[in-house]
Amino acid sequence: MGLPASQLGPQEEIVIETREHLKHLLVAGLICLAAVVGLVLVLSVGPSDGFWAWLDSAGWIAFAVVVAVFGVWPWLRWLTRTSTLTNERLVTRDGVVRRTGRDIPLERINDVAYDQGLLDRMVKCGTLRVSAASQEGTAVLRDIPEIHEFVRTMNELVRAARKERRLE
């Protein structure tokens, strides 16, 4: 899914691996549906010969551009934006062409907060804000599915990491 096994430490295990909630693709899907309706309308109304015959080709070109910009690109962004919680760190990865990532060791996490709007509460997702003891500051993870489960699990792992660190 997101984090290859080659990037895990010797004793590290993936606990939760997730992407943004599918609601993130709702608008893109509606735009693509409108593009299909527009294409069908242009193909059914436009003449097949004569001076206005170029409308069919223009309809197909416009459809391809809209689907590429508002369908394929958002889907690729969604596909490559992952959040992984392991027993040692929180890992975020993002980017289609240029990849960015952030790894936060669990023992450096100071605060875990979330917020949910009305739609977020209905689909059980939310925005997670993780404050860490670093120069990078707060990491913001948007549209995390099953946000309450993610926060609960993260808090348990942070407590366990701090307890283990004190024992060393």
UniProtKB/TrEMBL annotation:
Name of this chain's protein? PH domain-containing protein
Task: Name a Pfam family for this protein.
Answer: bPH_2
Q: Which domain of life is it from?
A: Bacteria
- Record's InterPro entries? YdbS-like_PH
Q: Which residues cross the membrane?
A: 25-45, 57-76
Q: Which UniProt keywords apply?
A: Membrane, Transmembrane, Transmembrane helix
What is the organism field in this record? Pengzhenrongella frigida
Q: Where is the YdbS-like PH domain?
A: 78-152
Instruction: Specify the taxonomic lineage.
Output: Bacteria, Bacillati, Actinomycetota, Actinomycetes, Micrococcales
